[in-house]
Amino acid sequence: MMTRRQAGYTLIEIMIVMTIILIIVGIAVPMYQKSLVRAKEAVLKNNLFTLRTVIDEYTYDKQKAPQSLNDLVTEQYLRTIPIDPMTGSADTWQVVMEDALTSVNQTEPGIFDVRSGSEGKSLDGTAYAEW
User: Fold this and answer.
1) Is residue 1 assigned to a domain?
2) Residue 53: its pLDDT value, please?
3) Which residues contact 62 (CB under 8 A, 6 or more apart)?
4) Is residue 31's pLDDT more than 80?
5) Sign of the Cα pseudo-torsion (56, 61, 67, 71, in order)
6) Quick check: 100 pLDDT over 90?
7) Is the confidence at residue 87, as pLDDT, over 60?
8) Would you say residue 28 lies in a domain?
9) Per-residue pLDDT for 113 more than 60?
């Protein structure tokens, strides 16, 4: 015959288990959030590399820089404009126009570079808009 004390867990045992679970969750959640930010940063770097490469290819092929990012899609250099993972939109890219004097086609200066439209800072402290 079982006594009442042997039938279940004491309140102290349950509190200790809950405390251990909370400590583990308290460590895991920040690590998970950092890994999400790192993944977004990796996607941003890849998207910037792709956009910059395609802008250079377009400029070389057409002997003039694209006037907008949509030119890259209409001329089939890209299927779609990639999404800026930091803003969640393809419309927030900040384009850097080339100087008319140094452009390939001085009558139509176009896009020279592209940057993220995010105002946030990366894990290393640099602004995403400076990448």
Assistant:
1) no
2) 96
3) 75
4) yes
5) negative
6) no
7) yes
8) yes
9) yes
Question: Amino acid identity of 50?
Answer: T
43: in domain: yes
115 strand-pairing partners:
94
Give one DSSP letter per residue of the chain, joined into a string: ---GGGSS--HHHHHHHHHHHHHHHHHHHHHHHHHHHHHHHHHHHHHHHHHHHHHHHHHHHHSS--SSHHHHHHTTS-SSPPPBTTTTBSS-PEEEEPPTTTSSSTTS--EEEEE-----B-TTS-BGGG-
Could you give the percent of the chain with pLDDT greater than 70? 89
Full-model pTM: 0.78
Nearest CA among 62, 60, 72 for reference residue 114 = 72
Q: Which of 14-18, 71-75, 105-109 has the lowest mean pLDDT?
A: 105-109
Domain that includes residue 16, residue range: 10-130
The total number of structural domains that make up the chain: 1
Give the span between the Cα atoms of 93 and 72, in whole angstroms: 14
